[in-house]
Design a protein that fits this description.
- The complex is a heterodimer.
- Chain A is built from 18 helices and 16 strands.
- In chain A, helix 2 packs antiparallel against helix 4 and helix 10 runs antiparallel to helix 12.
- The longest helix of chain A has 17 residues.
- Chain A is globular, with a radius of gyration of 23 Å.
- The two termini of chain A are about 40 Å apart.
- By secondary structure, chain B is α/β, with parallel strands linked by helices.
- Helix content of chain B is about 25%, strand content about 25%.
- Chain B has 6 helices and 11 strands.
- A 9-stranded mixed sheet of chain B has the order 9-8-7-10-6-1-4-5-11, with helices on both faces.
- In chain B, strand 7 and strand 8 form a beta hairpin.
- The N and C termini of chain B lie far apart (about 60 Å).
- The chains are: A alpha+beta, B alpha/beta.
- At the A-B interface, strand 10, helix 12, strand 13 and helix 13 of A face helix 5 of B.
Chain lengths: ~525, ~250
C-alpha cells in the first residue's frame, strides 16, 4: 500500500465512477464560473490584431478543433484564433488574462489524453499559422523554428542538410513541434536520442499575462541560473504558450536497418533486448514490441498493412532498428546478433528489411496499431511505465480479468524504454467495461511504482490520477508554481493538475457568469 | 525447368539523390543501395514457380563490380538456389548486359529468363528485349500475370499495355520481363538469410564467357531538373479567376 496520495486516489476513483460513458465528459466536470464569456467586443479586438483570416467563429470550421484525434472528447469552443507571430500571441493572452477568458493552446491536436481540446467554451489558440523555420546551423545541428511547424516537415528540412529530428512518432505528419515540446513527447527513437528535456536548447514562451519570455538559445551548455525552460517542456500548455523552439538535431544516420522478429514469449523478448544491447549497443535506435493481438487487430482493420512474417505466429513480435554510419559494419553486427539469437532459440523467426520499402512497411505496422484500434471501435488507452519484468504481466492479468466481457486486450509499446501501451478494444464505450479496467490498471501500476502516464501526459483524462505516481508535496508545489505563472488560471484549464491544486480567482466583475451548456 | 533471373543493384528508390558538383554523375557515396524493385518482383515470381513445382532450380545473376554481390545475397535469402556474378567494372549498358545474360542462359541451359522491365536508375527498358533478340527467343514484356503450361511448353502472359491488358501465348524457352503489379515480393526470413550464406555464387568474367563489351555512349553532363516554383496563396475566388485568366492564361 503506498504511503502517499490516498485521498487523491479516491478523488480519481470518484471521477472514474462519475464517468457515464467511460470518457471524461463535461457532465462530470462543470464549467468554472470564474471565467468570463466571450463577447462581440472580444471578437472585434481579436479581428483587429489578427485580421479576418486569423479569427474562426464558423461552427463547421470549429468542429475539428473542438474534437480530439480519438473522437473521445469534444468541447464547445465558439472561437478559435490563429496568430502568426509571437507579438500577436502576446496581445491575445494579455487581453484574455485581463478579461479572465480561458484559453486552450492547440498544435496538431494529435494528443491522446484530451489535452489539446476545450471542455467548454475556452478560446482555442491554434499555432498552425506559426510555421516558419527560423534557421538551422548544420555545424551545431541546432534548429530554430516557430512552434507551429509540423514535425515531419522539420525532419525533411533538416534531412536536406544531413540531420534528423531527435524524435519520431506515428503522428509526425500532423503533430507540431510546440506540442511535442509541451507534452515532452517520447516516440520511437527515445531509446537513442533521449527526451525533449535533453534535446531542447531553447524556447520562447508567452506567459499568461502576455509577457514574452525569451529563453531561446542554441547553446549546448549554459549553467547560468535555473533552467526555466524545463518547466514548460511537458507543461502541457498550462504554464505558458510556446512560440519558438530551438532543438538539437543529431546527424542523419546513413545506414538504417530494420528487423521484425518473432519471439516465443515476453521473457524471451527481454533476453533479445539484453543481447541487442550487447551486440548493437551504439547503433541500436529503436526496440519496440507488439503482441499477436495487436498484429491481428491492425491487419484486420487496415488494408494497407502487410504481415512481414505471414507464415509464423508467436505471442510477441519485435521491431528492432539500428542507425549507424557504415552499412556494411552495421549489417554484419546485425547478422551476428540475429544468428546467435536464432541459434539460442530466443527468436523463432525474423526478417531484415532488404530495402526502404520493406523498412517503411515494417514500421507502418507498428506505427498504425493506434489507428487500427481506432477503426475497430472504442478504445480504452493506457500508457504506463513499468519494470521490465512486470510489463506484459499486466496485459495478461487484464486479459484474464476481462475474459467474460466483449473486449480485446492488446499490448504493445516501447520495450526499450519500459513503456507499455495497454489498449482495450470494444465495440463501444461501456461503463461496465470501464469499471473493470479502472482503477485496477492504475492501482496495479502504482503498486509496482510505475507511471500511470509514461509519455502521453495527463491532459483532461488523468489529472485526478496524478497521485498514483507523484507525492502530495510534489503536486502541491506544482499547484503553487502554476498559480505563480498563471494566477487567473486561464491557460488550458481543467488539465494536468487535479482540481484541488487549481486555485481559481473569482471573476473580476464580481457576479458569476451563466453556465453555457 | 531451370529459371535464370537477372537482378541489378541500384540506388534505393526512396533515397534522396544529389548530382555531383562536377556534373559527371550522381553522388553515390553513402547512399542506400537496394535490389531494383522490378528485379525483386522477378525473383519473387521465379520462387513462386519453384513452389508450384514448375521450376526445378532458380539461378540468380548480376553483372557489375564487387558490391553488386549484395543483390545476389538478397535473392538467395529470399529463396533462390544459387547465384552467378559477372565481375566487371565496365558501364552497365543494356546491350552489354544482354550479351552477357545470353551467354549465361546458354551455358546454364535455362528454359526461362525473368528480368525486371527496367532499372530505376536508367529507366532503359531495353535489356529484356535485347536478350530475347540475341537468343532468338520469344519475349513477353510488362508481365502482369504469368501462367506456365509445362506439358505444352508454353507460357501465357498477360501484359499491361497503355490501353489495358493484353494476353500473349508464347513458346518456351522465352524471356519475360516483370511489371509492378505481377506480385508482392516476400520478406527474406532469418532461416533463409542464414542458409543463403552457404549457397554458391559462381564468379564469371566477360572474357570467360566470350563476350566483347562495347563502350556505347559517353555521358557528357548530368544536371538537376529546374526547381519548381512555389505556389501563390490567393485571398479570394475573384483573385484566383483573375490570375487564371490574365497570368496563367488558361481560361
Amino acid at each position: 500500500m503506498l504511503a502517499f496520495g490516498r485521498w487523491s486516489r479516491s478523488a480519481c476513483l470518484q471521477t472514474i465512477l462519475n464517468n457515464a460513458r467511460g470518457a471524461q465528459t463535461a457532465a462530470a466536470i462543470s464549467r468554472n464560473s470564474d471565467y468570463a464569456q466571450i463577447t462581440d467586443h472580444d471578437v472585434a479586438y481579436f479581428r483587429d490584431i489578427l485580421g479576418d483570416r486569423g479569427v474562426i467563429t464558423d461552427p463547421d470550421a470549429l468542429q475539428p478543433l473542438n474534437k480530439d484525434w480519438m473522437g473521445k472528447y469534444e468541447g464547445k469552443s465558439q472561437l478559435a484564433l490563429k496568430p502568426q507571430t509571437t507579438e500577436q500571441v502576446s496581445k491575445i493572452l494579455k487581453h484574455c488574462n485581463e478579461r479572465q477568458l480561458a484559453v486552450v493552446p492547440q498544435g496538431g491536436n494529435t494528443g491522446l489524453v484530451g489535452g489539446s481540446v476545450p471542455l467548454f467554451d475556452e478560446v482555442v489558440l491554434a499555432t498552425a499559422a506559426m510555421n516558419k523555420v527560423i534557421s538551422f546551423d548544420p555545424i551545431l545541428g541546432v534548429l530554430s523554428c516557430q512552434s507551429g511547424c509540423v514535425l515531419e516537415q522539420l525532419d525533411n528540412h533538416v534531412g536536406e542538410q544531413g540531420h534528423t529530428m531527435p524524435l519520431d512518432l506515428g503522428a509526425k505528419g500532423s503533430c507540431q513541434i510546440g506540442g511535442n515540446v509541451s507534452t515532452n513527447a517520447g516516440g520511437l527513437r527515445y531509446l537513442r536520442y533521449g527526451s525533449m528535456h535533453g534535446n531542447v536548447t531553447g524556447l520562447e514562451v508567452v506567459l499568461a499575462d502576455g509577457t514574452v519570455l525569451d529563453l531561446m538559445s542554441t547553446l549546448r551548455k549554459d549553467n547560468t541560473g535555473y533552467d526555466m525552460k524545463q518547466m514548460f517542456i511537458g507543461g502541457e500548455g498550462t504554464l505558458g504558450i510556446i512560440t519558438k523552439v530551438a532543438i538539437q538535431c543529431p546527424a542523419k544516420p546513413s545506414s538504417v536497418q530494420v528487423t521484425y522478429l518473432a519471439v516465443p514469449s515476453f521473457q524471451h523478448a527481454q533476453k533479445v533486448f539484453q543481447k541487442a544491447k550487447q551486440h548493437l549497443g551504439e547503433i541500436l535506435s529503436a526496440f519496440e514490441f507488439l503482441d499477436h493481438h495487436s498484429l491481428i487487430i491492425t491487419l484486420k482493420n487496415l488494408s494497407f498493412i502487410k504481415n512481414p512474417l505471414p507464415d509464423t505466429q508467436t505471442p510477441i513480435y519485435l521491431v528492432v532498428e539500428t542507425s549507424g554510419s557504415n552499412a556494411e559494419h552495421d549489417y554484419a553486427k546485425l547478422e551476428k546478433f540475429l544468428e546467435e539469437a536464432y541459434e539460442e532459440e530466443i527468436i523463432v523467426d525474423g526478417t531484415i528489411a532488404q530495402d526502404s520499402g520493406q523498412q517503411a512497411s515494417i514500421w507502418a505496422l507498428r506505427e498504425n496499431i493506434s489507428e487500427g484500434l481506432r477503426h475497430a471501435g472504442a478504445v480504452y488507452k493506457y500508457d504506463l511505465s513499468l519494470p521490465p519484468n512486470d510489463m506484459y504481466k499486466l496485459v495478461e492479468e487484464t486479459r484474464a480479468r476481462m475474459k467474460h466481457l466483449p473486449v480485446t486486450v492488446v499490448g504493445y509499446g516501447h520495450m526499450g524504454d519500459s513503456n507499455l501501451h495497454l489498449n482495450l478494444s470494444a465495440a463501444k464505450y461501456d461503463k461496465e467495461i470501464l469499471a473493470h479496467i479502472e482503477p485496477f490498471v492504475y492501482e496495479w501500476t502504482a503498486d509496482k511504482k510505475g507511471s500511470i502516464s509514461a509519455e502521453h501526459g495527463l491532459g483532461q483524462m488523468k489529472p485526478e490520477c496524478i497521485g498514483y505516481s507523484k507525492s502530495e508535496e510534489a503536486v502541491q508545489l506544482m499547484g503553487k508554481f502554476k498559480s505563480l505563472l498563471d494566477p487567473n488560471q486561464i491557460l488550458n484549464p481543467y488539465k494536468l493538475l487535479p482540481k484541488k491544486n487549481r486555485h481559481y480567482k473569482p471573476h473580476k466583475d464580481g457576479h458569476a457568469t451563466a453556465v453555457t451548456h | 525447368m531451370k529459371l535464370l533471373v537477372a537482378v541489378k543493384r541500384v540506388v534505393d528508390y526512396n533515397a534522396r539523390i544529389r548530382v555531383k558538383t562536377d556534373q559527371t554523375g550522381v553522388e553515390l557515396a553513402n547512399v542506400k543501395m537496394s535490389m531494383n524493385p522490378f528485379c525483386e518482383i522477378a525473383v519473387e515470381e521465379a520462387l513462386r514457380l519453384k513452389e508450384q513445382k514448375i521450376a526445378k532450380e532458380v539461378v540468380v545473376i548480376t553483372v557489375g563490380p564487387k558490391s553488386s554481390q549484395d543483390t545476389i545475397r538478397t535473392a538467395l535469402a529470399m529463396g533462390a538456389d544459387r547465384g552467378a556474378h559477372v565481375l566487371t567494372d565496365a558501364p552497365l549498358l543494356p546491350l552489354n548486359i544482354a550479351k552477357l545474360l545470353a551467354a549465361v542462359a546458354k551455358k546454364e541451359s535455362a528454359s526461362l529468363c525473368l528480368l525486371g522491365k527496367q532499372a530505376i536508375d536508367d529507366d532503359c527498358n531495353q535489356t529484356g528485349q535485347m536478350l530475347a533478340a540475341l537468343l532468338k527467343w520469344p519475349q513477353a514484356t510488362f508481365a502482369f500475370k504469368i501462367e506456365i503450361d509445362q506439358a505444352a511448353q508454353k507460357a501465357r502472359v498477360t501484359r499491361e499495355v497503355d490501353g489495358g491488358l493484353q494476353t500473349l501465348l508464347c513458346g518456351l524457352p522465352a524471356v519475360i520481363t516483370t511489371d509492378l503489379r505481377l506480385n508482392q515480393p516476400r520478406y527474406a526470413t532469418l532461416p533463409n538469410i542464414m542458409k543463403a550464406k552457404k549457397k554458391p555464387i559462381e564468379l564469371l568474367s566477360p572474357e570467360g564467357l566470350g563476350v566483347t563489351l562495347i563502350d556505347g555512349y559517353k555521358r557528357i553532363k548530368v544536371e538537376e531538373p529546374a526547381k519548381r516554383k512555389g505556389g501563390v496563396m490567393v485571398a479570394s475566388v475573384a483573385e484566383l479567376m483573375d490570375k487564371l485568366k490574365n497570368e496563367a492564361k488558361v481560361l
